[in-house]
């Protein structure tokens, strides 16, 4: 027997806490990815179906005996007909006239109210902020009848239209005021929570240097809120652009209604060309997609600000 001892194999050590967590998380991660894939497909299938149908002829959907077959050719006629019949050039202009001023006024007024409620201590600042926030809890349909009667009795010379309605009802200004009134509460709530994370010493140092209230607001605080303003701007543009209710009930003339009413024009009383409606829906959805793609980076960074700020 040799005098050299055979070395014993090294003892197996227990996996560390990090290794155990990685081994335990892997099935959960796979399940999470599977869930996300299923949800993405569930959301994309209707969109893909609408895009596909928008390039089909109406006759391709009316096969004998209900048979389904792939179309031999695709067409852009649905987009051309939807643009002309729905008068989308005019309704896009109406929507821009409503959405852009409403968006700018909402963000500006919300920032001013949030600045006043978070940077200054006065007797009713908390109650004022709660009042603005509580306005989001009121369903808009509940206030329809009082607002309708209010606008009907409010004299207003419609200088931006060919005809004078004599009242605020039936004007795009009424829709703008409604959007601003309902959206300011949510934006004030978000902006006030973000402004609380900005140190007050910045305002105090600027005040010592002689900066007034408005200069501190526009040159110091407002630029610091750029990420959250971009996120709110993306959300508000989508909500204001997609609104159909107020444009339909307050604008009594068809040539004054926004782009979302174009689909209602294309939907006939006895028959509907769903391929034509699909083409109109795709064109109507494009502006919101473009705005999101342009502000995607700022939108995501604005939503994740709360994760890094205490």
CATH homologous superfamily identity: MetI-like
Largest sheet: 2 strands, antiparallel
CATH architecture: Orthogonal Bundle
Please state the CA-atom Rg, rounded to the nearest Å. Answer: 28 Å
Number of strands: 2
Q: Any idea of the CATH topology?
A: MetI-like fold
Strand content: under 5%
- Total helical segments: 14
Describe the global form.
globular
Q: Order of strands across the widest beta sheet? A: 1-2
Helical residue percent band: 55-70%
What top-tier CATH class fits best?
Mainly Alpha
Category by helix and strand content: mainly alpha
Unreliable segments of 5+ consecutive residues = 306-310
Helix and strand string, N-terminal first?
A: HHHHHEEHHHHHHHHH
Average pLDDT rating: 80
Total domain modules = 1
Distance between the termini: 71 Å
